[in-house]
Amino acid sequence: MVGMVEKEQAAAAGCVIREAREEDVPRMTEIYNQGILDRQSTLELDPHPVSQERAWFQSHGPLEPILVAEKDGAVIGYAALSRFSQRRCHDHVKDLRIYIAREWRGKGIGSLLLGNLIEVARERGVRKIVLSALPSNEAGLKLYKKFGFRTVGVYKEHGFLNGEWVDVVIMEKLLVRMES
Ligand SMILES: CC(C)(COP(=O)(O)OP(=O)(O)OC[C@H]1O[C@@H](n2cnc3c(N)ncnc32)[C@H](O)[C@@H]1OP(=O)(O)O)[C@@H](O)C(=O)NCCC(=O)NCCS
Hints:
This protein is α+β, with helices and mostly antiparallel strands and 180 residues long. The chain is built from five helices and seven strands; from the N terminus they run αβααβββαβαββ. Helix 2 crosses helix 3 (50-58). The chain is globular.
């Protein structure tokens, strides 16, 4: 598939990283909704219908890659870059979404996906990846720091979740093109 990093680890985990296809959308929606219902990943409150995620999927072009991790023929996680904004000046700035199925978290799948996504994004000319995370999302923050994201700042009391106001951490990673 697309340029792979950490090939050996992917093989060790028995995991295939590949571009997402439209038929993956129902399973990707299921995985995303687990994250919403867990209340630790996003300020989204309500599960998304497949139709909404299908429209989201279809809105992605080559500069907005979506990769899935597949194990024994089943999708167990995905990572995607979406437009940061509709402004043309932001054409090369992308917003990260990464979600692993509950039973597969903490096993290195997020690292495999993000490593591959960054490589694909760099190859396609993405300039920068940005993201928002909840400060309580230890796994997410560790993952992002490991891949060189820096904290831009913290929105204080930016959303109401689980009966309390929560902060949101904003991070970014500039991608430098590798000259061959
Ligand atoms: C956040 C998420 C994508 C990370 O993917 P993952 O496959 O679980 O992460 P990995 O196993 O690759 O581990 C990444 C790092 O986080 C650490 N980590 C993993 N799970 C952890 C946990 N529960 N608590 C603390 N640290 C954890 C790992 O040790 C690893 O760091 P290391 O390589 O320095 O040891 C995944 O847990 C997930 O989908 N969570 C729910 C959805 C979500 O929060 N998405 C991100 C929204 S901002």
